[in-house]
């Protein structure tokens, strides 16, 4: 039985949370990559985010128009997505929602964190 089947049907795996707390001007994607490398993770799911981004670029659809937006000192309400490591390169996608008066949800393209920005990543490990 493949690993995923064993985790879902036989409940032989455990879900863990990796909490990343970033410093001022840390690259968010590079921090995810380093966290996965240091913890020997092949894949993870973005569960949540809190804090502010110092600068970020997101892309989104507005009607039938594709747009991008620069965020500066923006508070993040939540985040979701999936990442995989393949040959030490990060592959995946993350969506973020801002906590502004008119919330904006988009695909995270790149960005740096403000002091204390937190990301929660979940992963399955320790097959019994």
Spell out the key features of this protein.
six-stranded antiparallel β-sheet, 128 residues, 60s Ribosomal Protein L30, Chain: A, 14% helix, 2 helices, mainly beta, 6 strands
Gist of the model:
This protein has helices at residues 3-9, 28-38, and strands at residues 14-21, 43-62, 65-86, 89-98, 105-113, 118-125. It has 128 residues and is mainly beta. The relative contact order is 0.33.
Detail the topology: elements first, then pairings.
Elements: H1 3-9, E1 14-21, H2 28-38, E2 43-62, E3 65-86, E4 89-98, E5 105-113, E6 118-125
CATH structural architecture: 2-Layer Sandwich
- Look at the structure and give the CATH class: Alpha Beta
- CA-based shape: globular
Number of strands: 6
Tally the helices: 2
Order of helices and strands: HEHEEEEE
CATH topology: 60s Ribosomal Protein L30, Chain: A
Query: Rg, please?
Result: 16 Å
Report the helical percentage: 10-25%
For the largest beta-sheet, the strand count, sense and barrel status come to:
6 strands, antiparallel
Strand content: over 45%
Structural class: mainly beta
CATH superfamily caption: Hypothetical protein, similar to alpha- acetolactate decarboxylase, domain 2
Weakly predicted, low-confidence segments: none
The tally of domains stands at 1
Report the average pLDDT across residues. 90
What is the assembly state of the chains in this entry?
Answer: single chain
C-alpha end-to-end distance: 14 Å
């Amino acid at each position: 039985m493949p690993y995923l089947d064993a985790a879902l049907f036989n409940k032989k795996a455990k879900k863990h949370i990796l909490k990343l707390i970033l410093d001022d001007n840390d690259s968010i994607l590079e921090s995810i990559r380093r966290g996965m490398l240091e913890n020997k993770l092949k894949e993870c799911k973005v569960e949540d985010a809190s804090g502010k981004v110092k600068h970020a670029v997101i892309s989104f659809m507005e009607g039938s128009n594709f747009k991008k937006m620069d965020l500066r000192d923006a508070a993040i309400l939540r985040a979701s997505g999936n990442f995989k490591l393949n040959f030490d390169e990060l592959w995946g996608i993350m969506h973020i929602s801002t906590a502004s008066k008119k919330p904006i949800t988009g695909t995270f393209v790149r960005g740096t964190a403000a002091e204390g920005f937190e990301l929660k990543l979940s992963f399955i490990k320790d097959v019994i």
